[in-house]
Amino acid sequence: MAGLLLLCAAAVLLLAPGGTIPPPEDAARMARFVLHNCDWGALATLSAQEGLRGQPFANIFSLSDGPPGPSSGSGVPYLYLTDMEISVQDLEINSNASLTVSLAQTPYCKKHRYDPQNPLCAHIIFCGSIVKVNDSEADLAKKALFSRHPEMESWPKDHNWFFAKFNITNIWVLDYFGGLKIVTPEEYYSVKP
Predict the structure, then answer these.
(1) pTM value?
(2) CB within 8 A of 159, min separation 6: which ones?
(3) How many CB atoms lie within 10 A of CB 181?
(4) pLDDT string in tens for the chain (193-residue length)
(5) Rounded-to-integer distance, Cα 108 and Cα 15, Å
(6) Where are the domains positioned within the chain?
(7) Is domain 39-190 in CATH 3.40.50.150, yes or no?
(8) Where is 88: in which H helix or E strand?
(9) Which pairs with CB-CB distance under 8 Å and at least 24 residues apart come from 68-71?
């Protein structure tokens, strides 16, 4: 019976496209792993729109921390944005935001029959702000985003797209029972996914 339990535990740790999922006691690595294996996230802003001003407003955005593959992620969530987008208009008033990414968008949770709300279907909540990348970082952002989202290259040029990043100040990890784990940005950036 113990052998079967060990075999089941090992099977739970496998995630086909991105390698092996980190153990729950390694929250910083889990945060990097989940972000690197997700292609989009829910970005929440404080609305600046008439009738919603000051209310939370969540929207889906494509993102990337680097090209697909193990150990190729920077940990920085990059986005491709336009001022025409409603959430970006919110960010122009208040750049603070939160970003949630979840393994529910990968095959992992379905394979293990985990509901997206099950803590074993890990999700990460980042808090911080959205900032435009400078010229020296633009090539890195472009490579990260266009390698995962090639359609972006053909988006209308007259929309004045720009590269931005999520400047992380706080990180919460929910990947096991017992509540959220807090990871500092320093811990997060010091590990590989």
Answers:
(1) 0.88
(2) 82, 84
(3) 19
(4) 433 333 333 333 344 444 689 999 999 999 999 999 999 999 999 999 999 999 999 999 999 999 998 878 999 999 999 999 999 999 999 999 999 999 999 999 999 999 999 999 999 999 999 999 999 999 999 999 999 999 999 999 999 999 999 999 999 999 999 999 999 999 999 997 6
(5) 6
(6) 39-190
(7) no
(8) helix 86-93
(9) 68/17, 68/147, 68/148, 70/18, 70/19, 70/193, 71/192, 71/193
